[in-house]
Amino acid sequence: MSLSPNLVLRRLYSNVSTKVCAQKYVLTKYFQGEPKKSDFKIVEEDLHELKDGEILTEAEYLSVDPYMRAYMIGYKLPTDMIGGQVAKVIDSKDKNIPIGTYVCGAFGWRTHTIINGESALNKSLDLPITVLPDLNPYPVSLALGILGMPGNTAYFGLKEICQPKEGETIVITGAAGAVGSHVGQIGKILGCRVIGFAGTDEKCEYLEKELNFDRAFNYKKCNIRAALKDGAPNRVDCYFDNVGGEISSTILSQMNQYGRIAVCGSISSYNDTAPPKALIVQPALVFKELKMEGFIVNRWTDRWQEGIDMNLKWLKEGKLNYREKVYHGFENMVDALVGILRGENTGKAVVKIK
Fold first, then answer.
1. Cβ within 8 Å of residue 114, ≥6 positions away
2. From start to end of the chain, where are the E strands?
């Protein structure tokens, strides 16, 4: 699994142009339990010389996200590993995207990528390739977090599916992760009572003291029903579900009539080798007339910039805070993915390539 001696870049010089050899992760085995380095191979890929209208990018930050664990079963092997990245344009034959520009896109776990510049401005793709504005004084890695896919997942998932009203109570599981921590802050901006569940006392302290959650509970230590009675005395109007499992079944049973549930993920079961068991949820759905809806954020591709702009506005106004868990080195991508599935991160996890 070690990198080749030339690390991530090999240039072959000619009197015409410079060619680049990229490195990329290829998934060769479906995950069984936790992802393992032996599930992947790092391979080299010689990239073609740039054509008119194309740009060459070099990755600076790669994203690791829980969805990666769940999605790969849908791909035929071997396949390139999926994922977002922030990359710098190091060569360009597109007059609209000069060298030095930063872009963000779903390029996968790879060091270098050639993109048609027009696609970088095309908002009809599954997830838009974004040409980043000047984000100073913030790091460009935020384009993988609160100013990117996780931020839009929180923004659209909460506003469009949960549709919270001022004074209502929102409960969030996985509340200290990239999406959950953002959902809670938006809930506070909208005037709601926000309750979070996370996996350590330190994360709960962060949620209450730095992100202004009304209450946060360590799900590993507390009785969920008792915590809800304490933290949500008026019961629950909106539930943003990142984890699934028995905790979600319990929260559904404590909801108010006409409550809304946004199902974003089920990280509690991603590494399970056998189907998980949970309490039946249909009685709560029926008798409380609840609305439960799953979603994938690319539903709102046509409004992508709206979410980024609003999150950036809130960030500049001091209404949003963030944390990043930064891993280092292209060779440590798998360790980073395993780490977030174990709950090592508070906020967004990224891998800095250099």
1. 47, 48, 50, 54, 55, 56, 57
2. 10-13, 18-27, 40-46, 54-63, 79-80, 85-92, 102-105, 112-116, 130-131, 169-173, 193-198, 215-218, 236-241, 255-263, 291-294, 324-328, 348-352
pTM of the predicted model as reported, rounded to 2 decimal places? 0.89
Burial class (CB in 10 A: 0-12, 13-18, 19+), 131: middle
pLDDT digits (tens, 9 = 90+) for 185-241: 999 999 999 999 999 999 999 999 999 999 999 999 999 999 999 999 999 999 999
How far apart CA 149 and CA 161 sit, in angstroms, is 17
Please answer whether residues 129 and 119 qualify as being in contact, where contact means their C-beta atoms are separated by less than 8 angstroms. yes
Q: Report whether 354 contacts 237 (CB < 8 A).
A: no
Amino acid identity at 155: Y
pLDDT at position 146 over 70: yes
DSSP 8-class letter at 6: T
Dihedral sign for Cα atoms in the order 272, 275, 277, 281: positive
CA distances from 178 to 72, 212, 268, 309, 318 (A): 20, 16, 16, 18, 18
CA 248, chain centre distance (Å): 20
Task: Assess whether the previous peptide bond of 98 is cis (omega < 30° from 0).
Answer: no
Collapsing DSSP to helix, strand or coil, 256 comes out as strand
Hey, is 88 helix, strand or coil? strand
Compute the Cα dihedral for 170, 173, 179, 184 and give only its sign.
positive
